[in-house]
Amino acid sequence: MKKKFGSKLFLGLLMLFFYLPIIYMMVFSFNGSKSLSKFTGFSLRWYEQMFANKSMIEAIYYTVVIAILATVISTVVGTLASIGLSKSRKVLKTYVEQVNNLPIMNPEIVTAIGLMLFFTTMKIEKGFMTLLLAHIAFCIPYVMLSVTPRLRRLDPNLADAAMDLGAKPSYALRRIIIPQLMPGIVAGALIAFTMSFDDFIISYFVSGNGIKNISILVYTMSKRINPSINALSTIIVVIITIVLVAVNLLSMKKAKTNKVAQRVGLVALASCVGLTIFGLQKLRSNSGGNFDPIDAYGCDTLNVFNTGEYIGEDTISKFEQKYNVHVNYSLFASNEEMYTKLLSGESYDVLVPSDYMIEQLLQEDRLQKINRKNITNFDNLSPLVKGLAYDPKNEYSIPYFWGSVGIMYDKTKVSQEDLEQDGYAILKNPKYKGRIFVYDSERDSFMIALKNLGYSMNTSNLNEINEAYEWLRGLRANDPVFVTDEVIDGMINGEKDIAVVYSGDATYIQMENPNMAYYEPKEGTNIWSDAMVVPKNSACPLLAETFIDFNLGEKIAYENSEYVGYTSSVQKVIDKLQAGEFEGLSSYIPRSGYDKDEIFNYNPKIRKVISELWVKVKAK
Amino acid sequence: MNNYKRLIQPYVLWISIFLVLPMLLIVLYAFTVGGNDVLTFNFTLDNFTRFFNDNVFIGVLIDSFRIALVTTILCIFIGYPAAYFISKMNVKSNAFFILLITLPMWINMLVRTYAWVGILSDNGVINNILSFFGLGQLHMIHTEFAIILGMVYNFLPFMILQIHASLTKMDTSLVEASADLGASKFETFKRVIFPLSLPGVISGITLVFLPATSSFFIQRLLGGGTILVGNLIENYFVTTGDWNFGSAISLIMAIIIMISMYLTNRLDKERGED
């Protein structure tokens, strides 16, 4: 009796461990605010947002469609291949078995980059097909792995007998062999479906051009997590549970014969069919005005590539409605990632890179001129962002958001004096040991070190860069935590006292936590600006320009800026928000005209050096 | 049944293109320099000397394997008793528990991992409960503890399912025979049950150790910027754009993993011969 209690307690604790995050996620899907650690009240807003969020619906749709197709194809191919294999010569058998082991025994990331290199080398454009092919490629070995043991137990005389009695081989296959292999085939199909449904690493490297599954969406979103993903997961849990209960009730009669595999199989089938229908309907319910975009623009789909949470809540859907087009909206985590994706053969119509990246794209001749005639709102641009050095006449780029990099601090815990005195070196002040977030950006971290050492952030002097590297290594003594956009939630909740942040995030944080303040150190900072550009290979430049112009319109620009907290490029919007919503927040108007502030230049040699050194700063 | 032989031919072509060729490309990239326009064929060992001459990279490699090893050991110690207890239950609870363990795998890995951020953080659920009882604070997020917890959380189900499968497939008459011959319960476990379940443990180790070494988002979310080998690879492919060096790192990792898997399998065979 005692022993039984012990094992029950153990399993109970284990289940708690497994389900704690899931319960947590379900609870927070009903949270009133954006925070993922403070529950502020019950609300359904994330569910509403989820259904309104087109890229989420699309991600669900692609996840399910890819999973179903990959499962069906890999199950059929895998089963037939297994049957063929069991009759093949030894050499061939060994070859296939060894190769099949590659995706199973190799780390997933190796398979992923192998496939990425393959598609890039073959100049196959990444998208739905590459994603599907990759999924099929890694699913088949799993199917074969579960079919083969069944084959060994199969009596070969049965099929022979059938054929002796006049059955054609295909008939014997269908009526004799396949039915006997069924349990193995079902189990294999299930594994394939689960693998494909939940895959992240391989999909992340082989997809592109706006095609993304749930995992990729979550990964690019976790930069600034959006709780509607919790709503989605909650719905999945509920669907699975309902199907489970239903299956259980149905199978009551034949109680014991029921196998776990079959049960899970039904669950899989039912939930994916449900989700597909739901996704398809959502996708279809997207028709706006009644004019034909193909007539007007030559295309009806626009591929936009932007950073996460960097546009107004409804901007995309408003644009789609107004022009009756479809926007493929994809997210990147950094300028460098965006650049790599471009290199590996993806095409977009509108990109939103930063200053130095625009300079690079221009030098490499990857951008096309923007037809000013189509940018009717050009005069709305603030003089502060017009004609910057990287594109003096704004021939190729139209500014979108801009700002500075600075220090966010908790007024109740950090003394203003320390801040004035230390400048960036406050990150090294032992008084604040363990109380610091450092933004995980190689450029801005080196900017901080170089500025504190009194150098230009655009230096190409390797000695100065090495000094900055040592300065950053020295930072480790103060136990900083390197974060990206988790810094927002972290500072709102007051988890640390000091953080390196972008001015726009500072504005957003201060709106939620009035204890926080923003400071631009006297050593100078990076005054950056992000702009919209049209790549050379855009299939739809006219629509791209229309999109850019749309975002410069006063009303849309206001909604964008108000939602994300970053400083608009439209002067009237700056004035309006400064006097209204963001009154008194210094971070909304970055410092201008200070001689120690700089704009980043493009320097390919230094870029690689800094990138490698930054990895070394973060490694132990 | 020889009629079915030709069924394999298209598949041989398929794997040669989609599984073998990509691996060859990684090897090609790893032994060349000259950026992303391949097929210039500048063969060199530079990428490897660069890696092995740098203490930081070696340190990252050691850290990754150490964390993966700790994760795997923890999974065995938690997963084995769990699988054992479950396999001892009646058919219905058996199926029920296996279902409970597979269910979370249907929810996106990243979403589940992200939930841990809110649970472990300084103002998170656990610390709120602790401070409610006046027990002070535990700093957990952004530590190695958090990374290992995240990995155990994500990969433990694989271990349990593998061991469970080998335990339920076991011939129970052997266990009964051992008991009939007077072996104590512990001895039966040690000499009959455990050796027979070893193949399950071995495949469990594979399914945990592999993803644990190459993971890159668990440490990103829970480790506060900790760099492990998966992040190195991601960094060189995605951020720096140095695919040659990134391929070399992947190759080094893959080879070390293959060697350790080979040794693990040997261990299994040697034990079997005792």
Please give a quick description of this structure.
The complex is a heterodimer of chains A (620) and B (274). With 620 residues, chain A is of the alpha/beta class. Chain A has helices spanning 2-28, 45-52, 54-86, 90-105, 108-121, 128-153, 156-164, 169-198, 201-206, 214-221, 228-250, 260-284, 293-297, 315-323, 335-343, 355-363, 416-422, 442-452, 462-475, 486-492, 503-512, 541-552, 554-564, 571-579, 604-618; strands spanning 301-307, 326-332, 350-351, 397-403, 405-410, 436-439, 481-483, 498-502, 516-519, 528-533, 567-568.
Structure description:
The complex is a heterodimer of chains A (620) and B (274). Chain A is of the alpha/beta class and 620 residues long. Chain A has 25 helices and eleven strands. In chain A, α14 (315-323) links the parallel β1 and β2 (326-332). In chain A, α6 crosses α8 (169-198) and α18 (442-452) packs across α19. Chain B has a single domain, classed as MetI-like fold. In chain B, α3 packs across α7 (144-169) and α7 packs across α9. The two termini of chain B are 40 Å apart. Classes of the chains: A alpha/beta (620), B mainly alpha (274). At the A-B interface, α1, α3, α4, α5 and α6 of A face α1, α3, α4, α5 and α9 of B.
Structural class of chain A: alpha/beta
Helical content class of chain A: 55-70%
Cross-sheet strand order for the largest sheet of chain A = 7-6-8-5-9
Query: Any idea how many domains of chain A?
Result: 4
State the helix count of chain A.
25
- Computed Rg of chain A: 28 Å
Helix content of chain B: over 70%
By CATH, the superfamily of chain B comes out as: MetI-like
The poorly predicted ranges of chain A are none
Question: Could you tell me how far the N terminus lies from the C terminus of chain B, measured between alpha carbons in angstroms?
Answer: 40 Å
CATH class of chain B: Mainly Alpha
Count the strands of chain A?
Answer: 11
What's the total number of strands of chain B?
A: 0
Summed over residues and divided by their number, the pLDDT of chain A gives a mean of 86
Please, how many helices of chain B?
12
Tell me the β content of chain A. Answer: 5-15%
Mean pLDDT figure of chain B? 87
Largest sheet of chain A: 5 strands, mixed
User: Any idea of the CATH class of the largest domain in chain A?
Assistant: Mainly Alpha
Specify Rg of chain B, calculated over alpha carbons: 23 Å
